Amino acid sequence: MAINVHPLPVRHPEKAHKPDTPMLRKPDWIRVKAPTSPEVAETRRLMRELNLNTVCEEAACPNLGECWKQKHATVMILGAVCTRACAFCNVATGKPDGVDAHEPEHVAEAVGKLGLHHVVITSVDRDDLPDGGASQFVKTIEAIRKSSPTTTIEILTPDFIRKPGAIEAVVAARPDVYNHNLETVPRLYPTIRPGARYFASLQLLAKVKELDPMMFTKSGLMVGLGEEKIEIMQVMDDMRAADVDFITIGQYLQPTRKHAEVKHFVTPDEFAAYTTIATSKGFLTVSASPLTRSSHHAGDDFARLRAAREAKFAARTA
User: Fold this and answer.
1) Could you tell me the residue range of the domain that residue 161 belongs to?
2) Binding site membership: which residues?
3) Which of 88-97, 212-221, 230-239, 279-288 has the lowest mean pLDDT?
């Protein structure tokens, strides 16, 4: 008797017919241990029980084992399917499901059960929604504030391009940190981030500061995609012109042969040089290393960020 087997949906349909790209062998400084601790299993179980997605899993983050061992998970709201098709990203692309009305309460419940003092909330791009998903960010922030009022909240949002009022609504919800990643240098946007626009992302960061000058802003870059050092320095200058407080720089890691290839692995010494340069340009906080990611050590980094601002203000009034 014939058995009908329905094939699983392709995770990256827009990349399926692309030729394979080469995958460089990872250097020793980029290797991490497999996530096998009991805390990892417990965190995964909690996320499934609450029907939540994490960018840690969907984006294949190399720091999952380290972060989840400490029960630090970055929740990804608005589903697990993205409307964009960035060449670097492992999140599935396609037609998203409807918005889960219970998601904000589930996120707040997870924050409480994990005992998080600082939480990072991100999302897929939802170009299909009139507000790009901004209202779900607002509801999630409000739910966390209600159940865990002492928890500081960091959000990592899409660009909300062509979504009037979205940035204003999210800023009005008063997250402690507003993060939006530029991801790469302008020259590489057409191939690496084709659905986005560099200056739209830069303007979003500037808009946040315009709306609330005291809100911390943060943005990140991947390196190893073929960018030049001088281009990274120009992006740093652009970020500072938008008054971005915190920059993260990490090594791009290729998820599959269908994704953009790693052109080179940046050495730890080169990352140290980027740290020195970024600090000299006036960023309050800099995190630059091969395994740096937007939400890696976010709680500790937020404490450093707040202390750096207090020290800056104290120096001005001394």
Assistant:
1) 33-317
2) 56, 61, 67, 82, 86, 89, 295
3) 88-97
Let me know: does 251 contact 265? Beta carbons within 8 Å: yes
Structure tokens that stand for 308 in this block = 């750096």
Into how many domains does the chain fold?
A: 1
Nearest in space to 298 (alpha carbons), one of 107, 44, 116, 43: 116
At 135, give phi and psi (nearest 5°): -65, -30
Task: Determine contact, residues 73/56, Cβ cutoff 8 Å.
Answer: yes
What is the predicted pLDDT for the residue at 71? 67
Q: Look at strands 285-288 and 92-93 and give their pairing.
A: unpaired
Q: What is the dihedral of CA 160, 165, 167, 172, to 10 degrees?
A: -150
Tell the burial category of 186 from Cβ atoms under 10 Å away from its Cβ (0-12, 13-18, 19+): middle
Residue 24, domain member (yes or no): no
Residue 118 lies in a domain: yes
Question: pLDDT (tens digit, 9 = 90+) per residue, 145-179?
Answer: 999 999 999 999 999 999 999 999 999 999 999 99
Residue 301 pLDDT more than 50? Answer: yes
Q: What is the CATH number of the domain that holds 234?
A: 3.20.20.70
SS3 57: helix
Task: Please report how many Cα atoms fall inside a 13 Å half-sphere around the Cα of residue 30, on the Cβ side.
Answer: 19
Q: What is the DSSP letter of 215?
A: S
Residue 114 forms part of a structural domain: yes
Read off the amino acid at residue 116: L
Query: Is 253 part of a structural domain of the chain?
Result: yes
**Annotated binding-site positions for [4Fe-4S] cluster:** 56, 61, 67, 82, 86, 89, 295
Provide the 10 A C-beta neighbour count for residue 150: 6
User: What does the DSSP 8-state code read for residue 186?
Assistant: G
d(CA 90, CA 82): 10
pLDDT at 35: 67
Euclidean distance between the first and the last CA atom of the chain, given in angstroms as a whole number: 84
